Amino acid sequence: QVQLVESGGGLVQAGGSLRLSCAASGRTFSLYTMGWFRQAPGKEREFVAGISRIGNIFYDTDSVKGRFTISRDNAKNTVYLEMNSLKPDDTGVYYCAAHTGTVVTTRTRYDNWGQGTQVTVSS
User: Tell me: the pLDDT tens digits for 75-91?
Assistant: First the structure.
């Protein structure tokens, strides 16, 4: 198991930026595929971005294309989500997740989750 702690959420105006961080501990971070998911009120948790153990990157292109960037620093056991040009529709709780498989975009494959960090984008 790996423990995940997200940070960096907050309240921002539309068009603004935030950088989320997810610090991992407990196991060898480089062995994990990492993902960012978000959950808006009344909606299911959805995939936002993910990065595999070997650095392959995937995005939910319809919603975040060209605006969000995921990256990982294995030396710091941390994965990041840089979010630019934020929209009110980006509002929700953002969760970091990890698993040791290779599938990046499927929520049910992830078996380690952080507690989430709230992102609120005002119009």
Answer: 999 999 999 999 999 99
